[in-house]
Design brief:
By secondary structure, the chain is an alpha+beta fold. It is built from ten helices and nine strands. Helix 5 runs antiparallel to helix 10.
Length: 255
Amino acid sequence: MVIKALSLLDAFTVENPSWGLRDLSREVGLSHTVVHRLLKSFVESGYIFQNPETKKYELGIKFIELSNVVEEKLQIYDWINPILEKVGSETGESVVLTILDNNEGAFVKIVESGKSIKFGESVGRRSPLYVGASHKVILAHLPQEVQDTIIDQGLEKQSEYIGSRESFSEKLQHIKNKGWFYTAGETYNDVAAISIPLFDRKEYVLGSLSVAGPAFRLTEEHAIKMLPILKESQREINKIFSKVIFPSRRDHLIN
């Protein structure tokens, strides 16, 4: 029953922040009766909120409280935010901290550019690791068996970002050798990004640091000039990650 309850919570994303009972039941593959019972318990405990106007269900304020507990415990963002802000100030573009969460990457911190046209994305958005610079640069540093699993998932979904297994594997090796990756128009048509990996104290990949902006402004040539800034910040953030245990799901390190 716990797994069923968690599957409900996993359905709430940036793209789908609210659900009606029937749609949610179809999404998670559970009966209306079971979903209604679970939702009722979540509502009573503050984890889920039912909008009185739309009658749809949304995540409740309890999650804000829990996120504050995590941040307060780690105090990690107090250390990282000044680094992200410095990168943003020196590059003039938005800065994104992405953290590995098993087979996905999640945006956990974004410092937006002060320019009128900028990278517009939300904290909490997650995507498969075969999509975008911030995610591929993480995937390139994962063990081969994990890469194979994620590539298989992409092939099953007929992802346009993979093509063939051989060519994609070669691309990942190329990214790992370079230590950075640039994409334009991949995640969004008009957005470009350059990304570098971040590592924990045991030198396992934990996430990535990216500079992102409109593709017309952040060309590859211009992005490459930002690499010294990114690499300096990479060293600083890696030092922070070497002192704390970030609550990132990385089951491949356990199995």
